[in-house]
Design a protein that fits this description.
Largest sheet: 8 strands, mixed
Structural class: alpha+beta
Number of helices: 19
Strand content: 15-25%
Shape: globular
Strand order of the largest sheet: 6-9-10-24-23-22-19-12
């Protein structure tokens, strides 16, 4: 709970429940709060009284005013007490409570609000079903851990805002009702009453507006921005809405954006890390292709010391036919070291192989190095020279093991990344109590669909291509990188960002390569494109996710634990009962009619939605 040190002037309280100390001995005080816990000892009733700031133990003696009231109090009833602060005897001091040196001898009690029997206990860390917690979120929020998380969230946002302003950024609010966004996810649509058949969209991000602010000459913008996307829930993504620290800057290079963002994130994490270590600026810069090779994904967890390597050369033309034939078909072989795993029992290797099969891999072959000897199901197929090359390329030595994945490059990267995480977890190799940041840079501008051969944008279509118009005119599109970057912490992507494409001629060409005509570009992105024709500065930005920052600092595995009123995985607000049916009169006003899916379609949709979430 938060501490309050000021004296209150209120008919309800002179102090908060987290404020009184031994120096307040003998004071007459008033406190108001919730009955957190009650203990009836016959002639004495002990009440732990709770408010936003903390707990104070209150004692009601038999024969005093309010003793009969105290005996009948239920937990979570709201009361006001008046009494005298008494310093506790040495043997009754509670060092676990900030107010543990004192108690209040109660002379008067008034019930301000009674509580019905509780659907969940506030004074315990007991797990309750998600449905109960979300339906009664106002009770759930009274529980210490969740209450503390939400206070942390407020403090983190205040810290972010302060640090941005100190760097010369100005906060602006961009529209909530806007047009459909090119961000890529599904929009939430709002029907227009005044314009029948037309819809507003809630912003997936303030992307176009913040770029227009740079065109308007504001130079340094930020906003704690609400964003709305009709996406399925994940552990690190809440369905419906989320908040981000939205940033945009004019006349900057990629490195200048990094130099502005790093002090803000480093400062916030230093402020709230609670003794945990963190990467200090400048953060490592890891090119996209290097990240995909070494870590198996584009959001590397640098607390994990395992580095994946390509060992296709070791198996090319080797006696291990499965891998050798795969390489002939264009497959690659990735090696995932397991440091010190030679001492593990056979069950360790069998368990990993079973896990690999469960997630869709053919298996997880391995070699164990014991002294100068190589053991395992694959070792006998490699001669001494190949084993020596393997040791060098995979950076393994005596006492280590190494696992292998053979597949198309995209699948091999994905499976090797998953295996890297699983092996590090099983061997307890992941660094504890640490925040490890990095920038992933040099994302490819384009990608090719394996089935159709069509070239499309790989990530953000509005990023500036490295090499500009000349690169677009002269290079193979699949070799062009973008000035696009992600900031990652502990394997969680906090933000995507880019230096923007601010030149109309470059934008036309970039979209042309992806199959979009000039007319389509002008129709879909006319607002921003027209603005660029009237003089646009080079600009770029980023947008770290507030929810994910707080999730990391609170050490919570699920993002719902740091959001005040989250939806469930089916995007329902169980407390406010949203979404809900709208009266026919309202639909008529909006020129809408409902075309409900047939019962069979609804069952199929629920099953697919459940699988997706």
């Amino acid at each position: 709970m938060t501490t309050s040190t000021h004296t209150l002037h209120s008919p309800y309280r002179t102090h908060t429940c987290g404020q009184l100390r031994a120096t307040d001995n003998s004071k007459t005080v008033k406190l108001s709060g919730w009955v957190h816990r009650k203990r009836d000892h016959g002639n004495l009733v002990f009440i732990d009284l709770r408010d936003h700031y903390g707990l104070t133990q209150c004692v009601v003696a038999a024969g005093s005013h309010g003793f009969s009231i105290a005996e009948g109090l239920r937990n979570e009833t709201v009361i006001q007490i008046e009494g005298t602060v008494i310093r506790r005897s040495d043997d009754t001091i509670n060092p676990k409570m900030p107010t543990g040196d004192i108690e209040v001898m109660v002379t008067h009690i008034e019930v301000l609000s009674t509580a019905d029997p509780l659907p969940l206990q506030v004074n315990a860390d007991t797990d309750f079903p998600e449905e109960t917690r979300l339906t009664y979120r106002f009770l759930d929020l009274r529980r210490e851990k969740l209450h503390r998380n939400i206070v942390l969230r407020s403090q983190v946002i205040a810290s972010l805002r302060r640090r941005m302003i100190d760097q010369g950024f100005m906060e602006f609010q961009t529209p909530i009702l806007t047009s459909s966004s090119p961000e890529g996810a599904r929009d939430f649509l709002v029907p227009s009453r005044l314009h029948p058949g037309q819809f507003y969209a809630l912003p997936q991000a303030p992307q176009q507006f913040k770029q227009l602010l740079m065109v308007a000459g504001f130079d340094r913008y930020f906003q704690i921005a609400p964003c709305f996307r009709d996406e399925d829930a994940r552990a690190d993504r809440s369905p419906g809405e989320f908040y981000q620290l939205d940033i945009e800057m004019s006349f900057v290079t990629q490195e200048e954006v990094f130099a502005a963002v790093e002090p803000v994130l480093t400062g916030v994490f230093n402020e709230f890390a609670g003794g945990r270590t963190l990467t200090q600026a400048p953060y490592p810069r890891i090119p996209y292709y290097e990240s995909m090779l070494k870590y198996g994904n584009d959001k590397p967890d640098l607390r994990n010391p395992i580095i994946i390597s390509d060992v296709s050369a070791v198996f090319n033309g080797s006696g291990f036919g499965i891998f050798a034939k795969g390489i002939d078909k264009g497959f690659v072989v990735r090696a995932i070291p397991a440091p010190g795993a030679s001492t593990q029992p056979r069950s360790f290797f069998d368990k990993l192989n079973g896990w690999a099969q469960d997630i869709g891999m053919a298996g997880l072959g391995y070699i164990i190095f014991e002294g100068d000897e190589a053991k395992g199901p694959i070792a006998k197929f490699l001669d001494a020279d190949r084993l020596a090359l393997l040791r060098k390329q995979a950076n393994v030595s005596a006492g280590d093991a190494v696992f292998f994945v053979c597949d198309k490059e995209s699948k091999a990267s994905k499976f090797a990344g998953l295996a890297r995480t699983r092996i590090a977890q099983d061997l307890d190799l992941i660094e504890k109590n640490a925040f490890r940041f990095c920038w992933v840079v040099d994302f490819p501008m384009y990608e090719q669909d394996e089935d159709t051969g069509k070239i499309d944008f790989s990530h953000n279509p509005f990023s500036m291509p490295q090499g500009g118009l000349e690169a677009l005119n002269t290079k193979d599109p699949l070799t062009i990188n973008a000035y696009q970057y992600d900031i990652v912490c502990n394997g969680i992507e906090l933000s995507s960002g880019a230096i923007r494409n601010h030149l109309p001629e470059v934008m036309y060409k970039a979209f042309e390569i992806a199959g979009y005509s000039k007319e389509v570009v002008e129709e879909q992105f006319s607002g921003m494109l027209n603005a660029f024709k009237f003089g646009a500065p080079p600009h770029g930005g980023s947008a770290p996710g507030v929810d994910r920052i707080v999730m990391l600092l609170a050490d919570e595995p699920n993002i719902r634990e740091v959001i005040l009123f989250p939806m469930n995985q089916q995007a329902q607000d169980l407390m406010m009962k949203a979404p809900s049916v709208v009266e026919p009169e309202r639909l008529k006003e909006l020129h809408l009619s409902i075309n409900m899916p047939k019962p069979k379609e609804m069952v199929v949709r629920k099953i697919s939605d459940g699988a997706a979430s």
